[in-house]
């Protein structure tokens, strides 16, 4: 029987731990995502501001048109029957999410809702709603959201104007929204800067329930121009979306061989029943030895497919931590220089490892289609990346016997004794 030397498997399951961090919601009336240039601009914007969620209005999408943003899962509400309109929520694929059904509640607006979990019981509902200038605000939809979702955030180009949220004039939808805000004790958290340049008004709104106001940190109108609406970023602190919990199982093949060798059968195979019985026992022995030799380790991360770090890179990271502790205990210029050296090596090692994984991903691109612009972009991106170098980078120092050493423990001791 041939036995593979290495096996690494990953299992994803829900985790009940609460992580405390920030939630960043990027919103933009993009006025059509049917443009490759706008998709690239939007992707870069989300990357620059590290957005967890992207709310889009006026997507101009139809059900037969795909929308893909790397690293995000997308939920949509397309306008059917006439052009324009549409809403979408893009959420990082590392966040566990469920969609909130709204199909029986919407009238002429486009609305999409999702729910994320920040702990064992805490949930946050997030909605992206687009309301055209000629459409009356659907107050029953907003009241339904408020009544059924204690922790909720509503973003969207609502075309509601009111002096309360820094508009120069008011309209009927602005009055309806003001009444809703007052009735439900909700809050519009926009800053005073205009979001719609041509109208010089604040109509791309961020609305939170009173319970979410506790976590609100800031609202900023960004300078980047993708359409004639300015993108906004709303930040909530002291919470973080529910993350994925991974279990890595590693098999110690030496233990497997030792255990399976003790289970060898001595019975004679004289007939068909003996063969079937022996086959069943062999399968049982293999499974039992595999369970015996398997070690599991669990951890939580944003990554959907975490990668195993090479041993030499892991050793460098451990050495960096040791040098950091030594530097904190007794600072000298020499120690600082050595610490900076290992930091650069670790940084370069991680960069090369990411490039290596990046190149491996592109090997799956077997069915090349020269008319598909996405494939050409992937090829260009692949050409720009550098190949992963597996050469191990080491730190070497002279010890007290004036002999060059690369032993980590000895390096730390030399480093600590140097003045």
Give short descriptive properties of this protein.
419 residues, alpha+beta, 10 helices, 17 strands, extended, disordered N terminus
Summarize the structure.
It contains ten helices and 17 strands. The protein has 419 residues and is an alpha+beta fold. The strands form four sheets. Strands 4-5-3-2-13-12 form a six-stranded mixed β-sheet, with no helix packed on it. A six-stranded mixed β-sheet has the order 6-7-8-9-11-10. A three-stranded antiparallel β-sheet has the order 1-14-15.
Describe the structure.
The chain is of the alpha+beta class and 419 residues long. Helix content is 34%, strand content 23%. The chain is built from 10 helices and 17 strands. The strands form 4 sheets. Strands 4-5-3-2-13-12 form a 6-stranded mixed β-sheet, with no helix packed on it. The longest helix is centred in the last third of the chain and has 30 residues, at 333-362.
